[in-house]
Amino acid sequence: MLAGLAALAACGAPGGTVAAGKPSFEGRGPITYVAGKDATGSVQPVLDRWNKLHPTEKVTFIQLPTDPDAQRQQMIQNAQTKSDAYTVLSLDAVWTSEFAAHRWIDRLPQDRFPLARMLGPIVETGKYRGGLYAVPASSDGGMLYYRSDLLKRAGIERPPATWAEMTADCAKVRKLPEAKGMSCYVGQFQKYEGLTVNFAEAVNSAGGVITDPVGAPHVDTPQAKRGLDFLVHSFRSGIIPKDALTYQEEDGRRVFQAGKVIFERQWPYMYALAAKKDGSSKVAGRFAVAPLPGLKGPGASSLGGHNLALSASAGNKATAIDFMKFFSSEQLQRFTLAHAPAAPTYKALYRDPTLVKKYPYLPTLKKSILHAVPRPRVYQYGDVTAAIQREAYAAMTGSKNSEQALKDLQKALQLPAAE
Amino acid sequence: MVTTHNPPAPRMATAPPGLSRPRRRRPRATAGSGRLAALLISPTLLVLTVVVLYPTIVALKDSLFGTAGIDPKTGFVRDTDPFVGAENYTAIFGDAGARFWNAFWNTTFLTFTTVALETVIGVAMALIMHRAFQGRALVRASILVPWAIPTAVSGLLWRWIFNSDGIANALTGRHVLWTTEGFHAKAAVIIADVWKTAPFIGLLVLAGLQVINKEVYEAARMDGAGPLRQFWNITLPLVKPALLVAVLFRTLDALRMFDLPYILIGAQKTSVETLSMLAQDQAANVRFGPAAAYAVILFLYVFLIALAFVRLLGANVVGDDEAGPKRGRWLPRRRTEVAA
Amino acid sequence: MTLSPALRKWLLYAGVAAVVAYCLAPFYWMLVSSLRRTSDIFDNSPFPTRISFENYLAVLDPSQSFTRALLNSVVVAGITTVLALILATFTAYAMARLEFRLKRLVLTLIIATSMFPVVSIMVPLLKMFVDMGWINTYQAMIVPSMSFTLPLAVWNLTAFFRQMPRELEHAAMVDGCTRGQAFRKVIIPLAAPGMFTTAIITFIAAWNEFLIALSMTNKAEMQTAPVAISKFSGATQFETPFGSQMAAGVLVTIPLVIVVLLFQRRIVAGLTAGAAK
C-alpha cells in the first residue's frame, strides 16, 4: 500500500489529491506554541518579541517533556480529544506523515512560506503526499563531540573518521593519567526516540538502510548488522559504558560537561552549553566537533529537526499562519543562531561568514544534512520506532544476538507496512 | 484507578457467607420500604450505570472493531474502524500476541510478588505494633504516610531514589541501572509498591489483632505453646478473615497497576508493561479496538480472581451480616465460609 | 524460648524503629532532596549541605501553573467527595436499615464496580466527553472519578450505619418522627464521625487519581497536581528537574500528611471499621 502511496506522491499533484475540505485559516487571537522542553532558552525571548508586536494575538509557550515519545503522545492526545489547547505544534520531522494521514494537522498553503530558500531534504520532511503539512523551523544533525585537548595530548592530530579509529584513539587517550576512569563514547541509548536515531545512524553509517524510499524495510542485511554490531560490541567491550543505556540527550550532556567521557554523539544545541565559562561545564574550550564516524569513513547522520504544524482542532488559525511564517523566517533563525547554536533550515545561513566563524560546525552540519538519511517515513511511525527501540535495545543489552534482533525487526516492520 | 485509589476498606466485623453463595431467606420486605429503598438507591445506580456500565458495554462493542487503515485515494486514515469480529481476541494467540502475553505475565508476576511481600511485611508490622504501647501514635501516624502519598508522586520519588546516581545505588554500593529493561526494573516496581501498601495491610491486620481475646493466649501459654505456635495456631487463623479481604483487594488493585510502572520506569518498557499500560498505550496510539479488547480481558481476569477468592477462600466482601455481633466473630460461626 | 523482659523491650523498640524508618525514610529523602540546591542535587548526604528553597520557588513560579494545579486538585477531589458522599449516604442508609428484595445483589454490584479497571471505561468516556465538549473541564474528571469513589463511600458508610443502634431510630419514630426526620435528626448526627472519616478516605482516593486526569485534560490550567508533576518540564532550564519534582511532590503530599496526622485515629477507625472497636 505504501508503494502506491509513494507513487501518488511522486506524481506530486498539488492539492488535487486532497479530498478533504480545504481548511480555512480564519480567526485571530491568542494562540499557543507547543514544543519539547527548550534547552537553549531561546524560545521565550522570540515569543516575547512576537507578543510585543501583536498584543492581541499573544502566543503562549507550552513546554512538553524532553522525551520525544511523551511529546508525540501528548500531541496525539490533543488531537484525539479535539482540544483547542494546542495551536502551533513543533513536530519532530519524522511525525509529519502520521499527523497528516490522521488529519490531526492542516494542510498548509505552500505559497505563504519561502520553501525554495531552504535546504531540499529538510523541506521534504514537512511534506505528505506532495502537500505541505509542516514548515521546517529548525533542522538537526548528529555530530561527534570530542575532547580536543585530550586527543592532542595523546598525540592524535585529527578526530576519528571511523569507528575503528575512534576505538583506537580512545585507548590512547585513556592511557593518559588525566583521562583515568573516563568513558570512551556515549550517545542516546535509552529506550526512546533517541535510540531510534542512534540505531539508524549506526546502520546508515555502515552502508545499510532501515527502509527504502517506498517505505519497505531492509534491516535484515549484512550492512545493517555491521552497524548494529558496532553498538553491541561497544557495549560489550565497555567502549560505551553500561550507564549509557539510561541516557537521553541531557544525561549524556551532563557526563560530557563533567569531563567523564571522551566522545559523544550529540546535537548542535550542546555546543554553546558545553562552551559556557560560568563553571557549569568543565570542558569549556577543550572540545570540538566532527562528523559522525562510520564503518569505513565518515558516517551519516539522522535527519532531525522540527517542523511547525497547525493543529486541526485549534482556533485562531489566521494568527497561527502568521506566527508560523514569523517563527520559521530566515531573519528569526539568524537571531536564534546569535544566541545559541542550532541547525538552520535556510541555505544562506550555512554560507554566512560571521556565523561560520562563530559556529565552525556549520559547514560540517550542512554536509551532514545534505547526505542525511531520513528516518523511516511512514504514517505508523509510532509502531516503527517502537519496534526499532525494542529490537535494538534487546541486542545492545545482549538478550538477543544482533542477527536475530534484525530478523525480528524486519518482520515487525513488515507488519505495519503491509497494510 | 489501578493503583491510584486504595481499595475499599474491608469490613472485618462480620463473616457471613461469601459474595455469591445462596443465602437464607430474609423477612419479606414491606412495599413501603421497598419503594423508599428504590428511591434512595437509584441515584447511585444511575451514576454507576453512566460511568461504569455504559462505558463497559461500549468497550465490549469497540473490542470487535479493528484499526482504520489508509484510504489509498485520499491518503488519509479512514474515519470508521472496520468490523473485525473476534479478531482482536484471537490475535493474542498469533504472532502479534507476544506483547500481550508479556504484559499478562508481568501483571501476574508483579501482582503475586507484591501481594505476597506486602502480606508478610504487613503482618510483621502489625505484630510489632500490637505489642508496642509506647509510641503507638507515632507508628500509626507514620504508617499512614506512604498510604497518603499519591502513587504518581511516589513513582517520581522512587525514580529519583533509583536514579543511576541516586541513593539506592549509593547505599548498596552497587551500580544498578534500575530504570533500564531487565529484572531490576521489576524489582524497582515491586519495592516501590510494597513500600506504599504493606503498611496498609499492616493496619488492617492490626485491627484484627486488637479484637483477639487475650484469654485465648493465656490459655495457650498454660498449655505450653511457644510464640511461634501461638502465632500459627491462634493469631493467624483468627486474623485470616481480615487478612483475606485485605489481600483480595490488594490483589485486585495490583492487577490493574498502571501509574507506578508508568512513571517509575516508563511507557512501552517490556520488563514492566502491565495489561493496563498495554491497553492505555494502544488507546493512546488510536488503536481503540485492541485497546478495548485488552481492557475486557483484564476485566475478566480481575473478575475471575475475585470470584476465586470468594468461592475458594471464602473472603467475605459484602459484609452484610445484619445480626452479626461485633465481638462474636471468632466463634464457630465461621464454619460457613470455610465450607465454601 | 523465653526472653528477658529487658531484651524483649529492646527488641520491641528496635521493631518499632524499623517500622517507622521503613515508612518515613523514602518520604524523608524526598524532603531532603527538595531542599538541596540544583547544583548538589546528586549529593547523597543525609542532610542538605546547604538548605535552599530554590526548588520551591521554581515550583511556585507562575510559569509552572503548579499552584493552579493544586487548586484544581482541591476542586476536583472536593466536589467528587461531596457528590459521592451525598449519593452514598442515601444508598448506605437503605442498605443498612431497609429490607428490600435483591438488596444483597445490589450491594454486591455496587461494590463490584470498584473492581473495574479504569482503562476499560476510559476510552468510551473519553469519546463521549469529546463529543460533549467536556475535555479540559472539571466535570470530565469528576464524573469518571465517581466510578471508584462512590462504591468506596457506599461501602464505608454502610458499615457505619450498621453499627449504629437501631433502637434510637425506632425510638424517634415512636416519638412521632417520620423516617425522614429520624434519618435527619438521629442518624445523620450519629453518623457524622463516620461520614467525616469516609469523606477523608474518599478525598484521598480522588486526590491521588492519575489516569483519568491525565487523559481528560491537556491544558496546564486544568491539570490536577499529580498530572502536573508528572509532566514537569522543569523550571530551571537545563537540568533534569528532579529537585523541583521532589519539591512539588512534597507540596502535594504535605496537606494529606497533615490531614492524616490530625485525624489518624479516625482514619484508622474508618479503614478498619468494626474490627477496631
TrEMBL record, chain C:
ABC transmembrane type-1 domain mapped to chain residues: 70-263
Alphabetical keyword list: Cell membrane, Membrane, Transmembrane, Transmembrane helix, Transport
One of the record's GO cellular component terms: plasma membrane
Topological type in the membrane: Multi-pass membrane protein
Record-annotated membrane-spanning stretches: 12-31, 69-93, 105-126, 182-207, 242-263
Gene3D superfamilies per UniProt: MetI-like
Name of the molecule in the record: Sugar ABC transporter permease
